[in-house]
Amino acid sequence: MGALDFAGGSVVHVNAGVAGLVCAWFLGRRTGYGREAFEPYNLGLTMAGAGLLWVGWFGFNAGSAVAADGRAGLAMAVTHLAAAAGALSWMLGEWVVRGRPSLLGLCSGLVAGLVAITPAAGFVTLRSAVVIGVVAGLACYWGATGLKRLLRADDSLDVFGVHGIGGIVGSLLTGMLASRTVGGVPGSLLTQAIGVGAVMAYSLVATAVLLWITNLAVGLRVDEQSEQTGLDIAQHRERLGS
Known about the structure:
Blueprint: H1 9-27, H2 43-62, H3 70-98, H4 103-117, H5 126-143, H6 146-151, H7 159-177, H8 180-183, H9 189-217, H10 224-229, H11 231-236
Helix pairs in contact: 1-7, 1-9, 2-3, 2-4, 3-4, 3-5, 4-5, 4-7, 5-7, 7-9
């Protein structure tokens, strides 16, 4: 049908987001979820990891041009702009809603921008990349907060809120903003929506079946003591830090 996906917005991010949501539903909530605070362990490591993702994404998106040419250069440029726009828009949304921005939100927003630009990287202009990043930052902030509460899923790393919603937003906006001048092909919102829906349906069903089989064969959830201790200790006898 001609759905556009330059570097894997649907096949990577929508797929992973839906799979993560199904896993969260299947496993159930962590012990103490909703009754006690789960604070980030080390925001310095979070920032370092987000920075590595930002740099690595250039290869992910630009490499999908399969050539060292102008289209690869454009993919790098729009990736950078969308990440920056996503970080700023998430931070702004958090500031308006909660009265203060956070480093965790900034890092989450830049990943949201990176995710959303992935399907569009070889098809949109620089201006459209900024639009995609801004919309993705706000949409994924909602996905990781309001929508997460509606879905009643303990998605601890917001895989669906950031990757799932970001992938959906990016794929749909690719259909709206794809430039024939840039990519040589027109976009279609309807075609993109059908593609996203097909990936979501496939991922939901396939993940549920695989989890059901795995649970029957070896089980999925650890015992409560191991969960409270932490799997680094319970299964690997290793810890990071004191």
